[in-house]
Amino acid sequence: MSELKFQISISLDGFAAGPNQSEEHPLGEGGEQLHEWVVKLAAWREPHGKEGGEVNASTEIFEEALDNVGATVMGRNMFGGGPGPGGEEPWRGWWGDDPPFHTPVFVLTHHEREPLEMQGGTTFHFVTDGIESALAQAKEAAEGKDVSLGGGASVAQQYLAAGLVDEMWLNVAPVLLGDGARLFEGVGAGVKLEQLRAIEGPDATHLKYRVLS
Amino acid sequence: MSELKFQISISLDGFAAGPNQSEEHPLGEGGEQLHEWVVKLAAWREPHGKEGGEVNASTEIFEEALDNVGATVMGRNMFGGGPGPGGEEPWRGWWGDDPPFHTPVFVLTHHEREPLEMQGGTTFHFVTDGIESALAQAKEAAEGKDVSLGGGASVAQQYLAAGLVDEMWLNVAPVLLGDGARLFEGVGAGVKLEQLRAIEGPDATHLKYRVLS
Question: What is the DSSP letter of A41?
């Protein structure tokens, strides 16, 4: 059965992004520290067009995220709410001509537009009628494979609070941000978890849970 | 050199105690779930006068807490702000005649009183002039061994925020409390951590950090 799974990097004090998110700081101030563990990995660098990188205990986490994924859901900012780092025009997102998803991607937005077909199997579909609709469309498109929740933090929060997440990997970076977007803000005490795995990477600890209710 | 170390159990959403702490719920509502991993352990049960229990991957965490400890600091509630579970008179704390510390214990309180000598090497000293004084007295008493911070959550928070903690084990229970006492509340972005270890226990994941600044 198609499940909704996601991975997200958080600080030890629970923030998925730092304070004062802006075009200059899409991850908020200090937020880039949450992702240091992943940008070092050869497994991340290769699909992002970068050379080199490490293979370490965190590699399997990153690879598992791509495993058995038939569709992706993400927020508008994740698609490319601001200008991309390479100077691409904003309306094609900031993922370049050949985005690393290679699946249909359902982008939550308030603005209707036609689907945008990219190279390599990625097509962006724009969904204006909410998270449940986006998930239903993604599950349909996934044809029995899983749906990956791409982020950002507020989208992950919304799916968690709605009880729609099945599994999650939390990549806990050894940093305190003190302020910003809390992953579990508004996700109440009603959510029960099953601890599935824990892996110590060199630059983050990876905790995997199944959301039971 | 004498260091300040502590262990604390927190929920995945960062709470060291649930909401509405009271005499009936000293750990707040739902807070007892944070400690399920430890009360199962034979290593915990034996010094608390209980039979049976498990030996599992979490055992070494609990045992390490007692290792090389020459003195203990704790808050007044931890000493026994309310009636003890065994019906002991409150003024002798709720740890029984032979408390499991076997060291000098410095209790943060607003009420001066004489030291209270118990069986087994535990003497409670009552400190009214703040956390730095309590730590200085504990380090003196520890004679080169480490000082263990016994809790509760608000005391751990105060020592963290003051930058006085050297090492900590966070025992992360697979539960969301949604509300309560956040361990890292008010502990700002200035605190840098070094990730030392991660251990997957059956009922909690244990994360060890050194506080660098």
Answer: B
**Chain B residue numbers touching A31 (CB-CB < 8 A):** none
Nearest CA in chain B to A190: B176
Nearest of A4, A20, A135, A154 to residue A77 by alpha carbon: A154
pLDDT per position as a tens digit, B187-199? 877 678 999 999 9
pTM of the model: 0.89
Q: Are A188 and B176 in contact (CB < 8 Å)?
A: yes
- Nearest residue, CB atoms, B14 vs list A13, A18, A179: A13
Contact A18, A31 (CB under 8 A): yes
C-beta separation of B127 from B134 below 8 A: yes
Sorted by sequence, the CB contacts under 8 Å of residue A174 that are 6+ apart come out as A12, A203, A204, A205, B193, B194, B195, B209
Count of CA atoms in the C-beta half-sphere (13 A) of B70: 16
- Tell which CATH classification among 3.40.50.1820, 2.40.160.20, 3.40.430.10, 3.40.50.170 matches the domain B4-211: 3.40.430.10
Q: Could you tell me which chain A residue has the CA closest to the CA of B201?
A: A198
Query: What ipTM describes this predicted complex?
Result: 0.87
